[in-house]
Amino acid sequence: MSKRLLALLALLLTFGLLAAACGDDDTDAGDTTTTAAADDGDMDDDGTDADGDMDEGDMDDEGEMDDEGEMDEGDMVDFGLPDLEGRTVTVAVENAYLPFNYIDPETGEPTGWDYEVIDELCHRLNCVPDYQEYPWEPMIQAGADGQFDMAADGITITDERAQIVDFSEGYINIEQRMLVRLGEDRFTDSASLAAGDFTLGSQIGTTNYDTAVDLVGEDRVKPYDEFGFTIQALIAGDVDAVIIDETAGQGYQGENADELELIGDSLSSDALGFIFVPGSDLVSPFNDALNSMKADGSLEEISGRYFDDAFSISYDDLSFPEYEDAVLPEGFEEDSE
């Protein structure tokens, strides 16, 4: 074989080896690119990655909704609580007890501590609150009779009431105080009031009324159907003092700072709770949700907006059309202030 032919064959062999080597490199590079695409979670043309899974790159670290309008996982919080599966829970409220429930004088909408807390409880339990306005005096018995699922009205937990309704755990403690006319100097505390011949006023059917009776006897207590009547009787001089929850008293005192003041120490510290139909399956879930709100600080946060000097709404700001034609208690003169 000639040297020229041998040289040609050697050259062809060299080209063949180079071509084969290039082909192997292209294949490896292609495999590497495919693997990287899958590892990066990039979607292909049909919106999935090589494994057919959604591209996690579209969901940011905060669980915000992406450009495609997918649900924000940040809104789906698992509180580890019972799931009431969208159940409607009827809730009785008076809409006349500051700051727990009332009609906002500016918007005309019901609002207050009870509304905010129960809304949050139902958010955590997956239930829907159905608020129903109900007067205070028959409320506890109506709850016992099953006319609604639960009631929220700053209700003091007592052994007597617990005989006919079920209570939640206490969510706040309220102090009972004496509200008097500004500058009162005939007595300075409950002991000196009880020692004299003074008359107390209080709303009937409340623990304030019970405290007043325990302090001076039933003969020296004037009962009133509404807190408003009680306060007006005090301003008019028909009673010498009123036993009232401190939070409510602060509201009246703030609005009538030139006429009223709270005096003396606390007469009683009472835990407040929600009431339920006896044997209700809602008590345990609501207690669990209440405890979760206490643990994460949300209950304290809501309370801070209502049980604080910054809360300026008073009973004088509210209107109660259902009581416009009410018969005032004996001895009370509507225009006496």
How does this structure look, described?
The chain is built from nine helices and twelve strands. β9, α5 (207-216) and β10 form a beta-alpha-beta unit. It is globular and about 60 Å long. It is of the alpha/beta class and 337 residues long. Among the domains are: 87-172 and 272-315, 3-Layer(aba) Sandwich (D-Maltodextrin-Binding Protein, domain 2), CATH 3.40.190; 173-270, D-Maltodextrin-Binding Protein, domain 2 (3-Layer(aba) Sandwich), CATH 3.40.190. The chain has helices spanning 3-40, 113-125, 139-144, 190-195, 207-216, 227-236, 246-255, 283-296, 298-306, and strands spanning 87-93, 96-97, 101-103, 110-111, 127-133, 150-156, 166-167, 172-181, 200-203, 221-224, 241-245, 260-276. The chain starts with a helix and ends in a 31-residue tail after the last helix. α2 crosses α8 (283-296). The strands form two sheets. Strands 1, 5, 6, 7, 8, 9, 10, 11 and 12 form a nine-stranded mixed β-sheet that branches. A three-stranded antiparallel β-sheet has the order 2-3-4. The longest helix has 38 residues, at 3-40. Helices cover 34% and strands 21% of the residues.
Strand content: 15-25%
Number of helices: 9
Instruction: Give the distance, in angstroms, between the N- and C-terminal Cα atoms.
Output: 135 Å
- The gyration radius over C-alpha positions equals 36 Å
